[in-house]
Amino acid sequence: MEKILKITSETEVTPTELACVLGITARRIRQLSEDGQLIKSSSGKFNLADSVQRYQTIFSKANNQPNDEEKEQDKKRISAEVSLKQSKAIKAGLEVEELRGKLHRSEDVANMTEDLIFTLRSHLIALPGRIAVDVAEAANAAEAAEIIRKETHLMMEDMMRYRYDPDKYAERVRERQRWEKKDDITED
Asked: What is the pLDDT of residues 71-95, one digit of tens each?
């Protein structure tokens, strides 16, 4: 008949026996011992009670509590997610303002200003042709100057009637969005 061993607080076991009790490999026992998490006695064996308690502490920490590096990574991840969501919210808000006509992109303002300048340019280029015959038929310089002044004022009044047209801006926004959507599709 086999002799039954009684386990006490002083019972020592080999690495293989401890591995069997803990349900891990003897190699893992050696790693934990080298890391200083399990302590060998002078005989090269492990105190069974102390080793089981230490392993349970190691196991519960590993399963329940993230280490400092994991906590820092979680903080960075959460911070990045918050920052991304804030950026998306700001972008969406700006797009809404743009669609409402309350906000304009600089490229749209530049294009509309360019249109105004081209209109002014075309008026100025057409001016000599419109007044040449009348000025040539003028009796004196004062009459010629008056003809030029009247035409210049008509041209300036026409330019003063130039007004901000939100529909033109909205049209430009819609055109640009169609272009951006097409670009997005081709990039994928």
From this structure: 888 889 999 999 999 999 998 888 8
Q: Which long-range contacts (CB under 8 A, 24 or more apart) does 163-168 make?
A: 166/101, 168/112
Q: Are 47 and 14 in contact (CB under 8 A)?
A: no
Query: What is the distance of C-alpha 130 from the center of its chain?
Result: 56
Distance CA 119, CA 126 (A): 11
Q: What whole-number distance in Å separates Cα of residue 119 and Cα of residue 113? A: 10
The count of other CB atoms within 10 Å of the CB of residue 30 is 14
Query: Which residues share a beta bridge with 40?
Result: 46
Q: How far is CA 143 from CA 148, 155, 174, 181, in A?
A: 9, 19, 50, 59
pTM above 0.70, yes or no: no
